[in-house]
């Protein structure tokens, strides 16, 4: 099954970064690598959260708010929302979780490895 990659712009109080996010339909939360969070400066909420990972273990991260803008390359339509995310030490790439995808109105086509707005 193909992966769905989503070009996005992440904005915090320190700056903006263009990234490619993997759509993670198995996670409620959007995940930000700690290094990326340090660069853009999302609004940290001062709350820690435990997330269950694939192997059954748990990891700890910090809740934050970040502005995300997604563009549909085919239509040119853009959507932007402030979303709740988790800053996760040791994470390599940003992941777009289901809550973010729903808030942006993104529908995943897992067979084709594409997304569109609804």
Give a brief rundown of this model.
By secondary structure, the protein is mostly beta strands. Helices cover 12% and strands 56% of the residues.
Account of the protein in words:
The protein is mostly beta strands and 118 residues long. Helices cover 12% and strands 56% of the residues. The chain has helices at 34-40, 98-104; strands at 5-11, 16-24, 30-33, 43-52, 58-71, 78-88, 95-97, 106-109, 114-117. The strands form 2 sheets. Strands 1, 2, 3, 4, 5, 6 and 7 form a 7-stranded mixed beta sheet that branches. Strands 8-9 form a two-stranded antiparallel sheet. The longest helix is centred in the N-terminal third of the chain and has 7 residues, at 34-40. It is globular and about 35 Å long. The model has no long low-confidence stretch (mean pLDDT 93).
Alpha-carbon Rg, integer: 14 Å
Largest sheet: 7 strands, mixed
How many domains? The number is: 1
CATH topology grouping: Cathepsin D, subunit A, domain 1
* Strand content bin: over 45%
CATH architectural group: Beta Barrel
Oligomer: single chain
Please estimate the helix content.
Answer: 10-25%
Poorly predicted ranges: none
Q: Helix segment count?
A: 2
Distance between the termini: 22 Å
Overall outline: globular
Number of strands: 9
Q: SSE order in H/E notation?
A: EEEHEEEEHEE
Q: Let me know the CATH homologous superfamily.
A: Acid Proteases
User: What is the averaged pLDDT score?
Assistant: 93
By CATH reckoning, the class would read Mainly Beta
What is the structural class? mainly beta
């Amino acid at each position: 099954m193909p992966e769905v990659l989503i070009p996005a712009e992440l904005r915090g109080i320190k700056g903006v970064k263009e990234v490619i996010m993997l759509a993670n339909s198995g996670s409620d939360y959007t995940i930000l690598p700690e290094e990326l969070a340090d660069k853009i400066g999302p609004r940290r909420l001062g709350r820690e959260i435990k997330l269950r990972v694939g192997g059954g273990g748990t990891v700890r991260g910090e809740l934050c708010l970040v502005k995300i803008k997604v563009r549909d390359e085919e239509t040119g339509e853009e959507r932007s929302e402030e979303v709740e995310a988790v800053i996760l030490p040791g994470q390599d790439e940003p992941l777009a979780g289901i809550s973010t995808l729903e808030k942006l109105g993104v529908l995943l086509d897992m067979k084709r490895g594409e997304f569109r707005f609804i």
